[in-house]
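HUMAN: Please help interpret these tokens:
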Amino acid sequence: MRTYTIVSLLAATLTLAACGGKSEPGSAPKSGTAARDTAGTRSHDDAPHPVPHVVVHDFDIRKIPAACRYSGEVLGGARWDDANGDNVLIVTHTMKVPPGAETDESNARAEQIIGILYATSGGGTKQLWKIQDAANNVCDLGHGLLSKIVVADLDSDGVAENAFVYNIEGSCDVSPITVKLIMHSGTTKLAIRGTTRAQVSENSIVGGEKTFDPAFNGLPESYREFASQLWEKSVRPIDILMPKQ
């Protein structure tokens, strides 16, 4: 009887040692902020329930799910997984050209840019938010989408922030053009509004405004930094400045 008990205890000890030396398949890694091309979670040493990590995928216009309805020309998009499910963000452009506008520049073209975010979870798809902006342009047309759509989980809460920069208002001279950055954290909308810089004389540069939405106040500083970096990277290349002699 003693021999049987010793063998049984030894087998149980070896079994427990083997289970304790390996993490469960699919367990979330303990890492920092999830950036555009990486996935991660914050450390959950003290958290009873791990936060789902964000995984960003390549966006393919040919693989937009049928449930994600949109209209117009697709300018760009993004796709990622987070706590909301499978997310698909689509930015499109539409333009209505009145009769005679092809030969008469005095006829304004009605341009519109639209951004829509869909999330699919549990077999159902719902629209999380939609933004629309429009302008009647006479001679020059808007530039459309000026940046890539960037995605990152800035506060490691399992819901990805996303942002893009666009222009929809044309300009008929060298004046600064209006530019906007739209950013979302879940359904919370944030924005930066401003203009490019334009050199109107040898010693005079106008424009270059950059105004943060009051909605940024009280949010993590990483939100403002993330938006500001995208703004500077996207807007400065289209500044209209005279070349130095």
The longest strand covers residues 124-137. The chain has one domain: 53-238. Residues 1-48 have pLDDT under 50 and may be disordered. The two ends are 100 Å apart (CA to CA).
